Amino acid sequence: MSILVMKFGGTSVANVDRIARAAKRVAVEVAKGHDVIVIVSAMAGETNKLVGFVQDTSPLYDAREYDAVTSSGENVTAGLMALRLQEMDIPARSWQGWQVPVMTTSAHGSARIEAIPTDNILRKFREGMKVAVVAGFQGISPEGRVTTLGRGGSDTTAVAFAAAFDAVRCDIYTDVDGVYTTDPRICEKARKLDRIAFEEMLELASLGAKVLQTRSVELAMRYKVKLRVLSSFEEQTDEAGTLVCDEEDIMESNAVAGVAYSRDEAKMTLTSVPDRPGIAAAIFGPLAEAGVNVDMIVQNISEHGRTDMTFSCPNDQVLRAEKALGEAKARGDIGFEELVTDQGVAKVSVVGIGMRSHAGVAAQMFKALAAENVNIKVITTSEIKISVLIDRKYMELAVQALHDAFGLEKAA
Length: 412
Ligand code: ADP
Ligand code: ASP
Ligand code: MG
Hints:
CATH superfamily of the domain at 3-175: Acetylglutamate kinase-like
Distance between the termini: 40 Å
Order of helices and strands: EHEHHHEEEHEEEHEEHHEEEHEEHEHEEH
Shape: globular
Helix content: 25-40%
Structural class: alpha/beta
Strand content: 25-35%
Bound molecules: adenosine-5'-diphosphate, aspartic acid, magnesium ion
CATH class of the domain at 3-175: Alpha Beta
Number of strands: 18
CATH architecture of the domain at 3-175: 3-Layer(aba) Sandwich
């Protein structure tokens, strides 16, 4: 039995015609003799709409109910895809996450997959079913509640199924024909990559390139899943798209492989914090407990025993952060004068394994931004990435300038 996993993102199942088109792609693979597991996203825009309903109803929502609502978009497309395949005389049925079951942690809104028992679906394949259609993005917690895997989580469902079923490949069908040096929608010189290393893809994804969810790349790397990104709008060969693979399997050696951005960032500054041991723990402990994902952190030099502490987090977590810090202040756990929130920032990053051996990438990056008069608010670096926080209005300009500065339109 050779199992192939095919995942269709939101634009690829945006309406019944698109679902019919995706089903035709599935039929091609079935004709080649594969048993296929299809993972579907919700129709494009659907999850955003559902998230909006939740936020309008309850700004500091109960995450379990958030999951109950936001997981529902995938139920619709899974059923429709199975129906479409049946219309084409292909034996198929749908599964919601809890029916498989996709067993996850109880971290609602960003649950991790812990196990996917395969017996149920394998038995159906043995009985003659050709396609198992599974609703992506959702699972079930040990408490028996529906969970979701975080935005973009259907990618992770797909890779987790590919690992659990030892699939020959995991194909991620989306609205671009592969992974590019940067988002082709904001930089017309972006170049499609035939291959990209797991580690680079992991960084690009975690820094905002939403073409693959970060955890899907992590899982593919850990379980050696053959992961490919390709377009659902074009005729495809087995070589199409971008293969995410080991570093050793790539010839290209630009210092920088790609540029990523994240639009929805916020910068928060606590002014005049007493500079004493334990103060960082007293600030970031309550934020962690409130589920705020703190990213960059800067502590200023202190004057007269007081300092400013700045951090960044996703824009939609600002309310939670303000509440957590307000409560910690009221309890007397931390002291600060003001909490200044700037919701108009974006993060732009350059990523490349080649940075390990190339000196001067940071200097080159800062020079390119300076030439465009873009002011840098916060900087962080790691071995293979450099990120800066800037005003959101300069984000696209910065991405384009960096793409030019590192010569990414040409292969190395
Ligand atoms: P899907 O609905 O299929 O999951 P997503 O919208 O989640 O699709 O991801 C695909 C989008 O990712 C593309 O339309 C593109 O705008 C964006 N993107 C960001 N960075 C990149 C990149 N480096 N390469 C390709 N696409 C990228
Ligand atoms: N529908 C979910 C989202 O929009 C999951 C996914 O599409 O991957 O985040
Ligand atoms: Mg996606």
